[in-house]
Design brief:
It comes from Candidatus Nesterenkonia stercoripullorum. InterPro entries: MFS (IPR011701), MFS_dom (IPR020846), MFS_Efflux_Transporters (IPR050189), MFS_trans_sf (IPR036259), Tet-R_TetA/multi-R_MdtG-like (IPR001958). It is a multi-pass membrane protein. The protein is mainly α. 79% of the residues lie in helices and 0% in strands. It has 17 helices and no strands. Helix 4 packs antiparallel against helix 16. The radius of gyration is 20 Å and the shape is globular.
Length: 424
């Protein structure tokens, strides 16, 4: 594949990842405000946050195998965006808190379908020497969406009927915008099917496999993947990182409301976290040539835990909260692409889509268990308790990762690209 084709494909994936996360980060904080407006409490916020992950939890491995077998991934990604639009419509149209659960579940499933397709496409088109940079750019698109989504959502709610009084009209308008924006992204992806002369669709096509390779692919069960060294550890780290991100999206609106922040100010806080992650992910290719991936992952877990663990105490001092959130977002943003790369390089090429899907199973399990736990704790302790639950999970993961680093201080692949030997 030519460098130009690879660049075009990675650019398209990055832009659609931006759209995907823009939608999620408009709809999900707005959903929290709608729960509050309908009389729901912090426990219900936790239940709805968990509903986002229920269907993905049981379907991720099957979707991963589907992605591995698919000759092209554009239809899979476009389907995910369309399902997200349908889920957002369900949330906006629902007159009750309980009715929002089904829409949130559809939103989460659509996001998973897109993510598995997108991550699998990155692993196909990125050369091994460029895998860190490719995943860095893809997740930079994620961070850009996480930055822009809360800003736009907060602005729509504040500008809606009621003049910023959190009226249902403004909240539902925000959810509609978040859902409908995915449709143009799906159309663009489907158009690539007609651009084969430019190589875009072919770039993400799976090569034809020999019979022996197909048999190797069949061995890519969850058990076989987990038997690879350190895979389980990195899946746990990924789950902790994403769970904290989800808890911030779900509970910072409540935390900010208690501290007297407007929806626009809360949107700014969530956006500055996205900016921090965007910056770190653009720098990831450079950082992994200087620092061992596993060590960088431990640093990511520790510093983001420290920053967000202190946020409930300082959120009332807005400039300090903004600074802390930016630093926390920078280090939080490193963890996800690092775990994608480490897991991708730790399994045979024919196992990569199922392995990335298993990572997403771990993520979604964390998104079910941790928000439910956080929501239960938030009922008596308030939203601060929910954020401390997420930070505590990351701290445990950092301790587990550090234990392995002490056992193998030199490690294979002190610099990022040396880890390519992990497939041998």
């Amino acid at each position: 594949m030519s460098a130009r084709t690879r660049t075009l494909w990675i650019t398209l994936l990055t832009l659609t990842a931006l759209v995907n996360q823009f939608s999620v980060n408009v709809v999900r904080p707005s959903t929290t405000y709608k729960v509050d407006a309908l009389g729901g409490d912090a426990t219900m916020v936790g239940i709805i946050a968990a509903a986002y992950a229920i269907i993905p939890l049981i379907s991720a491995m099957s979707l991963g195998r589907l992605a591995q077998r698919s000759s092209t991934l554009t239809v899979l990604m476009a389907s995910g965006l369309i399902i997200m639009a349908a889920g957002s419509a369900g949330i906006a149209l629902s007159p009750t808190v309980w009715g929002m659960i089904a829409g949130t579940a559809a939103l989460g499933f659509g996001q998973l379908v897109f993510t598995i397709g997108g991550q699998s496409a990155v692993s196909r088109v990125a050369g091994e020497s460029n895998v860190d940079a490719a995943f860095g750019w893809f997740t930079a698109g994620v961070s850009a969406g996480q930055m822009l989504g809360p800003l736009v959502g907060g602005w729509i709610i504040s500008s809606g009927p009621g003049g910023g009084d959190l009226s249902l009209g403004g909240i539902d308008a925000s959810i509609w915008v978040g859902g409908l924006v995915t449709i143009p992204g799906a159309v663009v992806l489907l158009l690539t099917l007609f651009l084969r002369r430019h190589g875009l669709d072919r770039a993400a096509r799976a090569p034809q496999k020999k019979e022996s390779e197909k048999k190797d692919e069949e061995k890519a069960s969850a058990l076989h993947i987990l038997q690879r060294p350190r895979i389980g550890s990195h899946i746990l780290a990924s789950a902790g990182l994403l769970a904290l991100t989800d808890i911030l999206v779900a509970f910072v609106p409540l935390l900010g409301q208690n501290a007297g922040l407007t929806p626009t100010m809360v949107g700014m806080l969530l956006a500055i976290r996205g900016i921090g992650s965007l910056v770190s992910r653009l720098l990831l290719g450079y950082l992994t040539t200087r620092i061992r991936r596993e060590l960088l992952l431990v640093i990511s877990l520790l510093v983001s835990t420290l920053c967000f663990g202190t946020l409930p105490w300082i959120i009332g001092v807005f400039w300090l909260a903004m600074t802390t959130t930016f630093v926390g977002g920078f280090f939080l943003g490193l963890g996800q692409p690092l775990t994608m790369t480490i897991i991708t390089m730790a399994v045979p090429p024919d196992w990569r889509s199922p392995a990335l899907a298993l990572r997403l199973v771990g993520n979604r399990l964390g998104q079910v268990v941790i928000p439910l736990t956080a929501g239960a704790i938030a009922a008596p302790a308030g939203p601060s308790g929910a954020i401390w639950v997420g930070a505590g999970v990351q701290l445990l993961s950092a301790a587990e990762q550090s234990r392995h680093l002490r056992r193998d201080p030199g490690g294979k692949g002190t610099k990022g690209q040396d880890d390519d030997e992990a497939d041998d």
